[in-house]
Write a structure and sequence with these properties.
The structure is a single chain. By secondary structure, the chain is α/β, with parallel strands linked by helices. 39% of the residues lie in helices and 11% in strands. It has five helices and four strands, in the order βααβαβαβα. The chain has a four-stranded parallel beta sheet with strand order 2-1-3-4, sandwiched between helices. The radius of gyration is 19 Å and the shape is globular. The mean pLDDT is 91.
């Protein structure tokens, strides 16, 4: 299973490391959350993917974490999703699933970048089926949860039917 998160420039991760010796300085920098990477976006993405994969029962050797949507010439956090899907297909993977857990709503990065471009690249490189798991906004349960949370969080607000203060 491919877990694809929105990318960030590498400098954002290294700036979050107050020790200056951990984030992107070691091969295992995101293997677990520790004091040095507690504010690191990349480490948090890895922790999210591990948690989801554990709940889904995805074996460790079948988990791939990568990052999409890079811009400009500055280095962005790796590995890059567009390169990962091509590499997998060229290595003989015929079927794969891609999930973008950081996106709660479908947008260009999920629909176009993953659901269209990544699928096309995967097929052109020898893969057969790359399935994009829809964002949670496609679920009635998600919409109901958003409404419930919004109502609970705004319970202190006056009712729209209440008379205005004089």
């Amino acid at each position: 299973m491919i877990f694809s998160f929105h990318g960030l420039p590498e400098r954002h991760c290294t700036k979050s490391d107050e020790s200056g010796e951990h984030c992107l300085k070691r091969a295992d920098c995101c293997d677990r959350l520790v004091e040095a990477n507690r504010n690191c976006y990349r480490a948090q993405c890895f922790a999210t993917a591990r948690g989801l994969a554990d709940l889904l029962g995805v074996p460790v050797e079948k988990r791939i974490i990568c990052f999409q949507s890079r811009l400009g010439r500055t280095p962005w956090i790796r590995p890059y999703t567009d390169e990962v899907v091509v590499k997998l297909a060229r290595e003989g993977v015929k079927r794969a699933v891609i999930l973008s857990p950081a996106f709660v709503a479908d947008c260009l990065e999920t629909i176009e970048e993953l659901g269209m471009r990544a699928v096309k690249s995967f097929r052109e490189s020898g893969g057969e089926v790359l399935t994009l798991v829809p964002a949670v906004n496609a679920s009635d349960a998600w919409a109901d949860a958003v409404v419930t949370l919004s109502r609970e969080a705004s319970a202190w607000l006056p009712s729209p039917d209440a008379a205005p203060h004089a």
